[in-house]
Amino acid sequence: MSDTPPANATSSPSPMSPEKDESRGTKRRVDEVVAGEASQVNVAPTELSDEFPELLRFYYSRLFPFAPFFEWLSYGDVSGTSVAAATGLGAAGVGEAAAGGRGDGMGLQGSYVSRREFSFTLEDDVYIRYQSFASAAELEAEIRKKRPFKIDIGAVYNAPPKDHKTIPAGAFKPLEKELVFDIDMTDYDEVRTCCSGADICTKCWPFMTIAIRVLDTALREDFGFEHLLWVYSGRRGIHCWVCDPRARALSQNGRSAVAEYLNLIRGSEDSGRKVFVTTPMHPSVERAAAVVEEYFEELVLEEQGMFGCAERWDKILPLISDESARAGIRNALIQQDGDNALGVWEGIKDMYAQNSYRSADLTEIMLQFCYPRLDIHVSKGLNHLLKSPFCVHPKTGRVCVPLDPARVADFSPFDVPTVSQLAAELTEAAKAPAPSADEPSPMDVASQSGRAYSLTSLKPYFGYFENVFLKSLLASIREIKQEAAIREGVIDF
C-alpha cells in the first residue's frame, strides 16, 4: 500500500493562516520545546502528538536541508531545460519541448526547477497540490510558513504547476520525473507473522533489507543506472528515486517496462503460486534468488515460523508441484510439530536432490516469501507524486532519511531519530562553549553553514545524501554538460 496521494487529487482550500494558528495559544512555542521540554515529548506510533506542529516548526527552521534538497531537484540547471531534455534523452515529446514546442503551440515556460510540482498535506489532512517554486528561497519560505505535515514531489511539467489553471486544456503536460519505487511492509502481511498493518519489528524489517539489495543491484547492473536515492519512509517502508537523466526522461511505457521487468510477485492475495521461474533461470532472477537464499531460513523459517502450524504450512505446500512430495513434506511437518523447521527444510532439499521433482519449486518458494513486493503503479505513472525525503512522519515522528545501500544491513528504522529527540539533541549541542573567546561555538559554525543537522543523530543520513549521493550526481551532470559543450564546439579553453 502506498502512502502517496492520488495523482488526480484536487487542491483543497488553505487552512487558517499561520498567524491565526499561533494565536490560539494551544501549542507550545518552539523555543520552549528546544529549551528543554523536548526530551519529554513522546510521539506515539499511532497517535499524533499535540506538540507535533510546534516540533515541525522547529525542524523546518533549524534542520531541514533546504539548500542540498533544492540542489538535488534542480539537477544543476535552474535556468532552462534539464540535462535529460538538453541531451535528447527525454520522454516522448521532451525533445520537442526542449526545442521550443510540443506540437500543441506551447513551449517551455519558466526555469526547469520552477516547473517541478510539489504538494503539501497540512494539519487536519488539508491537501494542496500543484505547488511550484522559482527559487530555493521561495521554497524555503513557503515550507516554513505552511509547515506541511507531508511534502510530496511530482513531475517536471512544461509550465509552472502553480499556473496550471491558466493553461489551455490538454496543454499542461508532465515531461519528466525520477523513476521511483515504493515498497511497503503491509504488502508482506501474507508472509509475515510477527506484525501486520503499519506495525514493524526487527523480525520483519529484513524483508526491506532484501528489497534494497535486490533492486539496487538490478537497477545498476541490468539497466546501468548509477544515481539511486534510497529513503526510509519514516514508518513501515522504503522508497527509491532513480535520478539518472535516462531514468528521469523515461516515458510511461518505459517506466512500465522497467517495473514489470523487476516485478516477480504476480497474482492476487488469494493466488497460490505467485512466482513462476523459467528453466534455465533468467540471470537477474538467479542473482535475486542468491540474495534471498541468504535470508530465507532465518527470516522465514525461524523468525516468521512458517513451519510452526498447519495454517502456515498451507502457504508453502501448494507451491510443491509434485503431489507425492507434497504429502511426504506434510507428514514430516506434522511429526516435527514446529520444533525443527531447519531440519525439515534440509530434508526437503535432500528429497529434491535425490528425486526428479521440479527443481524450480524451492527457488519459487524462497522468492515468493522474500522477493521485493513492488507497488508498480507508483513506478509506472509519470504524474504520480511520492513522499519527499526529509519529511517527518506524523504518526511516528521519525524523519524520512536517506539510506546508504552499501550499508543497508546495518540500518535499523528504530535508530532513526524522532523530531522530539532532535530538538533535545540540538538543545544539548547549544550548551557547548566556543573553543576560545575569538572563535564561534560549534552551534554557530553549524548554523551558519546550514548544517545544524551535523550536531544531531541526523548527521550520518543527511551527510550521506550531501557528501556521497548528491556529490556524485552533480559531478555526473557536469561531465554530461562538458561533453555536450565539446560536441557543440562551445567550450572556452
Automatic annotation (TrEMBL):
An annotated Gene Ontology molecular function: metal ion binding
Source taxon at top rank: Eukaryota
Q: Where does the record place the region Disordered?
A: 1-30
Similarity comment text for this entry: Belongs to the eukaryotic-type primase small subunit family.
Q: Which UniProt keywords apply?
A: DNA replication, DNA-directed RNA polymerase, Metal-binding, Nucleotidyltransferase, Primosome, Transcription, Transferase
Q: Where is the composition biased (Low complexity)?
A: 1-14
InterPro entries registered for this protein in UniProt: DNA_primase_S, DNA_primase_ssu_euk/arc
Comp. bias intervals (Basic and acidic residues): 18-30
Q: Name one GO cellular component term.
A: alpha DNA polymerase:primase complex
Name this polypeptide is given: DNA primase
Q: What is its EC number?
A: 2.7.7.-
Q: Which biological process, per GO, is one annotated for this protein?
A: DNA replication, synthesis of primer
